[in-house]
Amino acid sequence: MNFTVGFKPLLGDAHSMDNLEKQLICPICLEMFSKPVVILPCQHNLCRKCANDVFQASNPLWQSRSSTTVSSGGRFRCPSCRHEVVLDRHGVYGLQRNLLVENIIDIYKQESSRPLHSKAEQHLMCEEHEDEKINIYCLSCEVPTCSLCKVFGAHKDCEVAPLPTIYKRQKVSSSRGSKHGGVGVGTQDGISNCSLLLHLTSKAGRSGLKSQLRREELSSRPGPPALSASLCVWQSELSDGIAMLVAGNDRVQAVITQMEEVCQTIEENSRRQKQLLNQRFEGLCAVLEERKGELLQALAREQEEKLQRVRGLIRQYGDHLEASSKLVESAIQSMEEPQMALYLQQAKELINKVGTMSKVELAGRPEPGYERMDQFTVSVEHVAEMLRTIDFQPGTSGEEEDEEVAVEGEEGNAGPEE
């Protein structure tokens, strides 16, 4: 039997909202649960803050998470059932969060914020008879249907019952199975609240019947024996499904926690490798700077040696030029001497000096290309190419390097034995 689901949650009903709100009250602060909500081993729920207050009151010597001293754990009693809760060294932060209850609180707050007058009740409509409402339940096929389907449709030979009666008996049967207060999700004791939670969590299908027809004008006509068996099956399936859902949420939360730890490890490893990379390149830069200084010093020494030699030759040639110029002036003055005897006396001496001066050999000039400094050209192309090939080495880690650094540090700290 196919049918169209056209309904909105019936939380707009004031009575339903009040009932749900009672189930979402923390037994400690007597307020609606505040996130994060933790679930105890006894399946009762508490605000983490309230749970921490109770835990701290029961364990006054236990150190907080921010303390430098790590405690071995502690224990306290559940305020609802007095069941003893044993915690590990993480305290209440080691308890699992009840994400389902947190989602229900969010939906409840959203529904509470909507105006009641805008929530007009809608109905399940039969897909085969589009103008007919779903108003009966087929006990043989266990599906809701309409009156036309019973009269001359697919369910004309089936046993049916009014839909309000089915829903009322299911609701009453569920409430009898409740033993604990609060939202004890995941246990048979919390099945009375599960029918109410279905209004928030279920969709079209087999559970759509339970989440749609919550009306105050329910009929009190008793249903056939087959109905009780069906309700028991539904309760069992619903309880098992909720338990599986809670277990799945715990696994997801564990995976999320593990992934958060992985993220922290990735960030720490990346920071460490960046530091090592900077140190390596700073070391390379230091080697380059040291070598550059050595080459510059060699170039400066060669420059000074050549300059000293050339400047010495310049001074030598300058002295020779000055002496030759003075000799030329003396010879010219002697040629202009009017007295013959004095001229003859000076001329012979000047002739000897000129001959001697002309025969003087000066130091040779620098060889051609002496001024060139091409021998100090540095080829860095191959080094630059090697630097461009620097890359990460796969399969290696900084553990060996850390060990080497630690060994060197120990050797440096160890003094000579007396």
What is the name of the CATH topology of the domain at 16-61 and 72-112?
Herpes Virus-1
CATH class of the domain at 16-61 and 72-112: Alpha Beta
How many beta-strand runs? 9
State the share of residues found in helices, binned by percent: 40-55%
Domain RING-type: 26-82
GO molecular function: ubiquitin protein ligase activity; zinc ion binding
Biased composition (Acidic residues): 398-418
Protein name: Tripartite motif-containing protein 54
Write up this protein.
The chain is mainly alpha-helical and 418 residues long. It contains eleven helices and nine strands. The strands form four sheets. It has a three-stranded antiparallel sheet. The protein has a two-stranded antiparallel sheet with strand order 1-6. Strands 2-3 form a two-stranded antiparallel ribbon. Helix 5 packs across helix 6 and helix 5 crosses helix 8 (225-335). The protein is rod-shaped and about 170 Å long.
Layout of helices and strands, plus pairs?
Elements: E1 3-4, H1 14-23, E2 37-39, E3 45-47, H2 48-58, E4 74-77, E5 84-87, H3 99-112, E6 125-126, E7 136-138, E8 143-145, H4 147-152, E9 160-162, H5 163-176, H6 191-201, H7 208-212, H8 225-335, H9 340-359, H10 381-388, H11 399-413
Antiparallel strand pairs: 1-6, 2-3, 4-5, 7-8, 7-9
Helix pairs in contact: 5-6, 5-8, 8-9
Question: Quick recap of the structure?
Answer:
This protein has 418 residues and is mostly helical.
Question: What features would you highlight for this structure?
Answer:
418 residues; mainly alpha; Herpes Virus-1; three-stranded antiparallel sheet; 11 helices; 9 strands; rod-shaped; metal-binding; cytoplasm
